[in-house]
Amino acid sequence: MKYILVTEIAEHIGEEIILKGWVRNIRHSGKLLFIIFRDGTGDVQCVAFQPELGEEKFDQAKHLTLESSVIITGLVRPHPKLEGQFEVAVTDLSIIQIAEDYPIGKKEHGADFLLSHRHLWIRSSKQWAILRIRHTVYYAICDFLHQNHFTRFDSPILTPNACEGTTTLFELQYFDEGKAYLSQSGQLYLETGIMSLGRVYDFGPVFRAERSKTRKHLTEFWMMDAEAAFIEHNENIQLQEELIRYVIQTVLKERDNELTILERDKEALKAADAPFGRMSHYEAVEYLRSKGSDITHQSDLGAQDEVLLTENSPVPIFVERWPKEIKAFYMKRDPENPDLVLGSDLIAPEGFGEIIGGSQREDDYELLLQRMKDEKMPIEDYRWFLDLRKYGTVPHSGFGIGLERLVSWISGVHHIRETIPFPRMIYRIYP
């Protein structure tokens, strides 16, 4: 007999195997006992028949509760009703622990209750499915970047200054060195990496101290930032599209079962794997105003604007060439219109909003220095960043993807708080 994982079960039809895990559900009918068993890789039905298992073991099994931990020995056979699925005829069962009354049942629970029991809620089938998709999205991003010659280049979480101002950063005292901040982006540090490695990315937690309480905001989330030398605006956009389409393809291929559990519209995902839309900020504003929005040509897109923009589009839409006043100091000006920057945001369809922000970066030392002075930035704190434009500057671009935002759209989950194991929000830091 061999100890296997549920995900390997199709390879062992007709064999007696050992499973180790937990009871998701249990019901009995006379001399039959049906255990829905899970081990983290999947679920399988295990069927105990009293004459085969023995009266003593069968009686023990009848006392199992939700989330009890068990070791099951049994024979793998095709499921009698579900084509392509399997079940296990139980020949032996050992109980590791009988769980106490599980606080999360089939009844409806409020969001606060579930979040306070997040350490248990993640065991539910839908939360399991979301976290499995998160895992696949993460690795698909890394795999795509690896295939495209990007090197992982980890940036620090503790920083002496901010990427886009300190008003939304968590501040702390760093020994005797003065103030430090939890990073909101690794972008500036990544730009140093391209001068050594050409194409780089980081992937890790970042922090925003905004007091935002929406379904799309977390105070701690995971971000992938990428930077590439000799990549300019249009190629930067093309790279982002190829990456997102690769993620969609990978999830559809590897997480079909999880998407089914979440009742995700797979056809909508398949439809999104097509050439993305593209419009300028000016065109987007004109379109939104025709739809009744009061957005102006000097405004960022609000949440409802993002919904309106993509409501009739099956694919994400790039909004590019933004007014310089509403974008960051490091974005390169559009040579055709210096009032605009060569930046883009990618807006996901189905109301999920922005999932990528990117731009070509300013590579001219004097222009960047003047811009920083205009914004009254502490120049000495950024000397190292300016040095990049003094010693071998080149055209370069980059973009950032919020992992949870992307997972939310791919999995069809309405609240971003369900796409990370332990969400941190302005009113929650437990558990």
Task: Describe what is shown at a glance.
Helix content is 31%, strand content 28%. By secondary structure, the chain is an alpha+beta fold.
N/C terminus separation: 40 Å
Largest sheet: 9 strands, mixed
Structural class: alpha+beta
What is the CATH third-level topology name of the largest domain?
A: BirA Bifunctional Protein, domain 2
Work out the strand percent. Answer: 25-35%
- What would the principal axes of the Cα set say about the shape? elongated
Number of domains: 2
State mean pLDDT (0 to 100 scale).
Answer: 96
CATH homologous superfamily label of the largest domain: Bira Bifunctional Protein, Domain 2
CATH class division of the largest domain: Alpha Beta
Number of strands: 18
C-alpha Rg (nearest Å): 26 Å
Tally of helical runs: 14
Write the CATH architecture name of the largest domain: 2-Layer Sandwich
Show unreliable segments: none
Percent of residues in helices: 25-40%
